[in-house]
Amino acid sequence: MTEKIFMITWEYPPRMIGGLGEHVYHLSKELPASDKQIHVLTPATGAVLEHEAHGGLIIHRIPSLQLNTPDFITDVLQWNLQVLQSAIKLTEHTGVPDLIHVHDWLGALAGRSLKHLYKVPLVGTIHATEKGRHNGIHNTLQQYINDIEWMLGYEAWAVIVCSNYMLEEVQRNFSLPQDKIWVIANGVSMTPLWHKTIYEIDSEKILQETEQQGDALRHLAEQRRRYLLYLGRLTREKGVDTLLTAFSRLPQRLRDTLNLVIAGRGPEEHNLKRITYNLGLAHQVIFTGRVEEELKLGLLKGAEISVFPSLYEPFGIVALEAMAANSPVIASRTGGYTETIEHGRTGLLFNPGDSHDLNHKLMQLIDDSHLRERLRTEGRRMVEQEYRWSNIAKKTGRLYTSIINEAKDQQWIETEWPLQKNGTRLIGYS
Description:
The chain has helices at residues 19-30, 72-94, 108-118, 130-134, 140-155, 164-174, 203-208, 214-222, 240-248, 252-255, 269-278, 293-302, 317-324, 337-340, 355-366, 369-386, 389-408; strands at residues 3-8, 36-43, 51-54, 57-62, 99-103, 122-125, 158-161, 181-183, 226-231, 258-263, 285-289, 305-308, 329-332, 348-350. By secondary structure, the chain is of the alpha/beta class. It has two domains: 3-187 and 389-408, Glycogen Phosphorylase B (Rossmann fold, 3-Layer(aba) Sandwich), CATH 3.40.50; 191-386, Rossmann fold, CATH 3.40.50. Helix 9 (240-248) crosses helix 15 (355-366).
């Protein structure tokens, strides 16, 4: 019997902000192979079709009410109401779902409402926490998001996290019992293994696919200059300022032959450009802005070294993408990186926020071609063996089936929230 899953997500291609959209895209694409019918409910984006069907995967892009919202939180609340309305209409045609899966806090309110309306189990994936992203809760907005994350964990039959690091974090932050938390790693598309390097991409396409400094990047490709690469969002927790400082401390002989490419966008972009200028690196650092998929893969495949200097990183999927693309990796010794990178075999690790340690690792790897080749070979082999999306989807599908079968044997009862947030097991069932 086909199991019907409603999957609620704020990000889905072409709406891509961080790694969440990448995760849900690959997971939803692989799941129908496991006798699942997946309905993805996600915000509408531009002229993209509101409804798409790809076999057992049906995508519902839900438009907003086009009201002038005063802030981001109001926009999210409005969209949750639209999800709720759309899901109710959807059940008139498809029947009640067997399970609801919410990704992060942004769709949690709609997910909770649908859970109680149809009396079906709710699964929540917590990709990162507000407390972790900001190294604490510092204002009422962050407290609100933190409380919704707590609510999602409380209401969910099971909570999925991507690493043991995140298991400990959500257990500590939200007082969840350990047997309610499931660790299922992120996966990696193996497409980068067969992609062109940036040196092989048409120069006009580089200009078209680059938001900023397209000419500088095209010149780098045409001159076949060596470069270090950071790829990701430009936020405080990604630690890009540490990379800039470490790069500035490389000997002149190395900086004369290397560029640093920073690909991505985010709220720290202006500050990082200011730091670059103050360090005297304006002619050696290329900020590309957001890059499209082909250029992203080409940058990864052509990089001398890919560097991921995060201060906080629940998993770090882009480091695995770099390994799949045959790029040697240096990453900070934090979060999920400590579980996916074996120091000295599949990559190098440095102490987070320590520009001296990162500088040392950069010099070590730049000067040692044999070490770079070993990291390339072992990193790619590990990704191929352990992090294919088909394997991740199978694990997730088995969890769905287990929960659906378990829920059939439970009697539904309505419960009140406790006076204290203690993460009580199996909320809504007895």
